[in-house]
Structures are given as structure tokens and as C-alpha cells.
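Students often ask why inverse folding is considered easier than folding. One informal answer: many sequences map to the same fold, so there is more than one right answer. In these notes we will look at a single instance of the problem. The structure comes first.
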């Protein structure tokens, strides 16, 4: 047990949040004993379907009606900056003082960035930082505004410089963060588990009655995704088997102009074991880039 320090994770999402980012974090903490794991987040836990238990979870919740999604984003962001961020910083500082972790793992994600920056940028606490995404991408700018997204990005850079250790998810991000901050970091990304390799060794090729293409998570580049759908729609009648597009995740796309319910199916947000089983039933996966 002593091999596992008392670890506090500080980020926006709770331990059992849905989505790719939280799934990667849970994978990396797979063997971590719950009694040595603590959590601070901006969003509360809504269910525990993914099974990640922790010793204590401290939350400074963002009021749901104030969280910037699609409507009044600039106004809501301004209110959060002025009213919620100072209180969230106090909440994080209190959690650090009371829980007394041996190590702090920072995953700067959207609205966790301002309060974490206020508490940890000054060097008072030692911590490790993992950069899984950029806040100043197009979707972030649309929700936060270009100025606020840029300020959050600069806060992440300050945290990256202040951290004792750092990691990113790919070589291009590694070189970009080195250019921005002058600091180097390791590359750590989701890996293949032994059980996945064992499954591939056992798997036998069998004929299928239909071609099932899986898409898991949020569609980040929707314009490119729509072009893929358009191309697939054009060739479907020529293919020897029916083609279906299966969506997995919390987002709903049935209202999009490109969505065709005759060959597209939404499965919702599934527990990880069930999601893995469903994905294994599909023929291919699809992940568009831009």
C-alpha cells in the first residue's frame, strides 16, 4: 500500500464522468487503491456506473444554468470569472490543506483552469500536470470567446512551467509546449491493456451480415464528419452488405441535418464494460481529423 502515495486529482470532471478524457484518467488509475485517492472537481458526480471509487471527493460546483454551452456563453463566462472562480480557488486550497495529499495530479480542463492556476502557479504546492487537450481550439473559442480562451491557454502554460513533472499525449504537443514554455514533458497516452491483446489473439474472423462503423464520443470536426456521411450515403447502395453507423456517447446527433435514422443508430452513454463489448461487435471504428 505504501507504494501508492495519497494522490489528489484536480480537474473539471468528477471521477466517474463520461467521455474519452475521463476514461483515459480512469485507465491510468486502474490499480490505484480508493483509500489513497482523492479528487477535486468543478462538476459533481452524477452516477458511479464506471466504478471509480475515491476516499474523498471535494467539489465546487458550477451552477448548471451558468455553465456556458450554447446560449449566452460570453455573459455566463463573465459571471463565472467574477463570482465562481475566486470561490473555487478557495475550495481547492482548502481541499489541499485538509486532505494533505502526498502528490497532486493536475488535468487542466476548461473551467478548472482559472482556479487551479490561482492556487498552483505560485510554487506553493508541488504537482504533476497532464495536458490532454488545448483550451483555445475552435470549440473553446466559440464557448469562451477568443480573449478568455487565450487567457486560459496562458494559464495552462504557467502551470506547465510551474509543475515539477509534466506529460502530454503526442510528439506534436510535446514540441509545441516546449516551444511555448521552454519546458519538456513526457509523452503518455491511453494504451492497450493485456486483456485487449488477449482478445485479439482469441478473435476469429467470421462473416458478418452487416457492416457496422462505430463512432465513440463527441464529434469535434462536424463539417468533416458530415462530408464522410455524404460520401458513405453515396456508396451504400453499391456495397454488398448493409452499412450502419453506430454512435456511442452522451451527445445526441439525431437532430443534425446529416443524420439519417434509417442507417444511423444512437446507443447513448454506456458503462465501460458494456461499451467495450458493443464496440467489439462493430466492424470498424471511425475518427475524423481536421
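Output (designed amino acids):
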Amino acid at each position: 500500500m505504501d507504494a501508492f502515495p495519497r494522490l489528489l486529482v484536480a480537474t473539471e470532471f468528477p471521477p466517474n464522468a463520461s467521455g474519452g478524457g475521463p476514461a483515459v484518467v480512469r485507465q491510468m488509475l486502474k490499480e490505484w487503491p480508493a483509500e489513497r485517492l482523492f479528487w477535486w472537481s468543478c462538476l459533481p458526480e452524477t452516477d458511479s456506473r464506471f466504478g471509480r471509487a475515491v476516499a474523498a471527493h471535494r467539489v465546487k460546483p458550477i451552477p448548471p444554468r451558468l455553465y456556458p454551452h450554447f446560449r449566452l456563453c460570453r455573459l455566463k463566462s463573465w459571471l463565472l470569472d467574477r463570482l465562481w472562480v475566486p470561490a473555487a480557488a478557495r475550495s481547492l486550497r482548502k481541499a489541499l490543506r485538509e486532505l494533505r495529499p502526498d502528490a497532486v495530479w493536475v488535468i487542466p480542463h476548461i473551467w478548472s483552469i482559472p482556479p487551479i492556476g490561482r492556487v498552483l502557479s505560485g510554487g506553493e504546492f508541488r504537482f504533476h500536470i497532464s495536458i490532454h487537450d488545448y483550451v483555445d481550439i475552435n470549440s473553446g473559442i466559440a464557448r469562451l470567446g477568443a480573449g478568455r480562451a487565450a487567457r486560459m491557454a496562458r494559464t495552462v502554460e504557467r502551470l506547465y512551467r510551474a509543475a515539477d513533472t509534466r506529460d502530454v499525449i503526442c510528439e506534436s504537443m510535446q514540441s509545441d509546449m516546449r516551444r511555448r514554455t521552454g519546458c519538456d514533458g513526457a509523452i503518455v497516452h491511453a494504451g492497450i491493456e493485456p486483456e485487449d491483446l488477449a482478445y485479439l489473439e482469441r478473435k476469429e474472423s467470421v462473416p458478418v451480415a452487416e457492416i457496422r462503423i462505430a463512432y465513440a464520443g463527441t464529434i469535434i470536426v462536424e463539417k468533416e464528419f458530415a462530408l464522410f456521411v455524404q460520401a458513405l450515403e453515396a456508396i451504400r447502395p453499391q456495397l454488398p452488405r448493409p452499412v450502419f453507423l453506430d454512435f456511442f456517447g452522451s451527445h445526441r446527433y439525431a437532430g443534425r441535418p446529416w443524420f439519417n435514422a434509417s442507417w444511423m443508430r444512437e446507443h447513448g452513454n454506456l458503462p465501460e464494460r458494456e461499451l467495450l463489448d458493443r464496440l467489439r461487435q462493430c466492424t470498424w471504428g471511425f475518427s475524423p481529423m481536421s
